[in-house]
Design a protein that fits this description.
mainly alpha
């Protein structure tokens, strides 16, 4: 048990720390989806002060996701060396789940506080 925790510690820490960084692109992606495609389908209402259109959003989101993925993929690959006996598919699935954990936690907390 202690050996497994010692081996999985660095990858878990890397993905959770990058998950905190990922809150920014994830949150902005969620705001984009709520203001444009979901609002067009009638599932949400558009922000009344949003009048710039989709292009600025797309430019910012593409840049943010490019920077984030440029961090996550190499750092995740380096951390994967600590657990070589795990398949790539399982490692990246666990990494992606850990990556969204801070966003899910903060969204849940926000929903509970706002009521």
């Amino acid at each position: 048990m202690g050996e497994a925790i010692r081996r999985w510690g660095p990858p878990v820490a890397v993905h959770l720390i990058l998950g905190v960084v990922a809150v920014v692109p994830l949150w902005l992606s969620m705001m984009f989806a709520a203001n444009f495609p979901l609002a067009r389908w009638g599932l949400t209402t558009r922000e009344p002060t949003e009048n710039d259109g989709m292009l600025p959003w797309i430019v910012v989101l593409v840049a943010l996701w490019a920077v984030f993925l440029a961090l996550w993929l190499p750092l995740g690959s380096l951390a994967r060396r600590a657990v070589p006996d795990v398949s790539r598919r399982r490692y990246w699935a666990v990494g992606a789940a850990l990556l969204v954990t801070p966003m899910v936690f903060l969204t849940t907390l926000f929903a509970l506080v706002e009521g």
